[in-house]
Amino acid sequence: MPALKKLMAADPNLRVVLKELPVLGPDSEAAARLALAAKNQGEYLTLYRRLIASRGRVTEARALAAAAAMGLDTDRLKDDMNDPAITATLLANTRLADALGVRGVPFYLVGDQVVSEGDGDFYAALTARVADVRQNGCRAAC
């Protein structure tokens, strides 16, 4: 996340799309649902950043505690996390990940190309890929 935050700060024209993809079981799904539910209170990104920066396994209880610490209405979050629209979003994200061959998270796609955190200087790799897409477009439709 630090490299992505740095890129977002340096490039105000960058479009970043975050997709929740809970792959670590029920706790992961609950945290993803709570983060998506936080959109209804205008705090998705803030809660997402808190959860992604936390150490250890993020359980539903830990996600709710983080939301409460932010001043979010946790009763509303609990209701909203079971919204059929959130279920549909998670299903669509899973189908997209399957189609792209995603094997784990975090997963970064710039245009139509994967950029891996293992690519040495991740910030430089992201920056180079963004510049390439802007100059040359995507290899496939994106």
UniProtKB/TrEMBL annotation:
This is DSBA-like thioredoxin domain-containing protein. The lineage of its organism: Bacteria, Pseudomonadati, Pseudomonadota, Alphaproteobacteria, Hyphomicrobiales. Residues 23-116 form the DSBA-like thioredoxin domain. It comes from the Bacteria. Signal peptide: none annotated. One of its GO terms (molecular function) is oxidoreductase activity.
